[in-house]
Amino acid sequence: MSTAPPPSSPAGIAPFAPAPVSGPLNGQVDSHTPQGALSCRAHFAGGLLDGVLLLYDESQRPSQRALYRRGLQHGRTQLFGDGRLLAEIQYCDGLREGLSCTYDEAEQLSSKVQYVAGRQHGAASYYYPDGALARSAQFANGLAHGEQRDYSPAGQLLMSTLFVNGKRHGAQTRFHLNGARQEVVHFKDGKPDGEPVLYNEQGEPVGAAAGGDAPRRSLLARLIEG
């Protein structure tokens, strides 16, 4: 077993960097803090990361566990904060591939996103802390593409929005809590196309909203999108 500087680490990890080792690294390689605590344990083959990489925080708890193959992340990577699982990400030859999940401070699932060749592609789901679905969306080649649905904590559909190549395109519909339409806005290439139409709780049109401006984003949208 040899000692060498670890690979790049996430924020908050400052591993000790001892003198370089001559020749390509092979086998298990440990790095330690100046106080002697283990900060990184990695496996190498021919100088490339190959196998399990473990990073540790100041309390000696894992902060990252990753799998490598011939120097590239390949397989499942887990990220931790204060000992709690924060994310699970699948990689293939260095790129995100397949399902990626994030978790909140209570380790409850907060999002599920599909990736293909490093880009969001396919279904994405976001959740409230109690596990209820907050948003479902579709992506293609890293861009929102298809229907996005926002839900209340009780499961009622709040809004439906159509996207094409990352831009709102088509109808965006907001709903009353009884399920009836509340407002319909049409978009073209990301910009409002015509005036929004308002509806009462019986689903009857009651007039047009002030035109010309993009509709206000829902609280849920502001929380998710920032």
UniProtKB/TrEMBL annotation:
Keyword Hydrolase attributed: no
Keyword match Repeat: yes
Biased composition (Low complexity): 10-20
Coiled-coil features, chain-numbered ranges: none
UniProt cross-references to SUPFAM superfamilies, sorted A to Z: Histone H3 K4-specific methyltransferase SET7/9 N-terminal domain
Domain of life: Bacteria
Region (Disordered): 1-30
UniProt KW keywords: Repeat
Pfam families in alphabetical order: MORN, MORN_2
InterPro entries: MORN, MORN_2
Name listed for the protein in its UniProt record: Antitoxin component YwqK of the YwqJK toxin-antitoxin module
Organism encoding this protein: Rugamonas rubra
